[in-house]
Amino acid sequence: MKQKLIVLGFLLIFCGSFSRAQLLWEVTKHGCPTSYVFGTHHLIEVSVLDSIDGVFHALNSCDCVIGEMVISAGNMNGVLEAMKKPVDVSWTQMLSVPETEKLDSICMKNMQVYLYYLANLQPVFVQSLLLQLFYSQCHTNDAAAEPIMIDSFFQQLAAELEMPVFGLETAEQQMSALTSQSIEEQVHDLKLLLNTEDVCAEFETLASYYKHQQLDSLEGATKQMSKQQSSDLLYERNKNWAAKLPTYFKSNACFVAVGALHLCGKRSVLALLRKKGFTVKPVGVVR
Fold first, then answer.
1. I need a labelling partner for 144 at 20 to 30 A (CA). Which of 10, 42, 166, 210 fits?
2. How do residues 130-139 score in pLDDT, each as one tens digit?
3. How many domains does the chain have?
4. Is residue 287 included in any domain, yes or no?
5. Contacts for 16 with CB less than 8 Å, ≥ 6 apart
6. If DSSP codes are grouped into helix, strand and coil, which group holds residue 26?
């Protein structure tokens, strides 16, 4: 259950049911340039890319980058606006007294703000802030504490290479998916995080799976997601993205970077592309 929590908190970054679980995939079809799809981890240090064979070659061979959304000032403002939408219930009252005191202490120590002032945010956003905070605290002596995400890194490289960047969804669409859970469900997951005894150990276990491309090791954790969570956060988005990608692939060599969880299983982006006639195969091996 705790691993399920961390997986969800990473914006759904893992899974695995292909026999050769990999992060980098080649996508081809007659008449289309060769494109690539890469599974990202939204918190892990960018240096992990050095251990993934072929990723920079794949990027340099493409003429555009596609992410879940375009990471821009405008879209970040959209995220902030979504975070500030009024919450109908006082969700902090669903926490026990020890949980409230612990969360309030964390907020004051690390954000210099009382929990009271975060109560107007949906719990999922507070959980996301805590996950980023905890991950940074667990990696105070290495590059993982750097603020840049792999997703942002690829889009920054694209800008340096003067490559266009496209998004598969808007900030509003992504926030809608993230807030599709009821407030009660969001509070439940926040409670799990607050009551996890060794968050750093959980992070390290999942980070190790990612670094070694052992995505199948996380299948059990993702199976603990509810049907509604799987539908809203994974399958519906996968379906929408797989419907858009062929248009890009038709005339562009694309480097697609999305959370790795979206690349696995019978309803993944990769599986849906196969159904549309694309040949999808893994690239490289972990060193």
1. 166
2. 888 888 888 7
3. 1
4. no
5. 214, 215, 216, 217, 218, 219, 264
6. strand
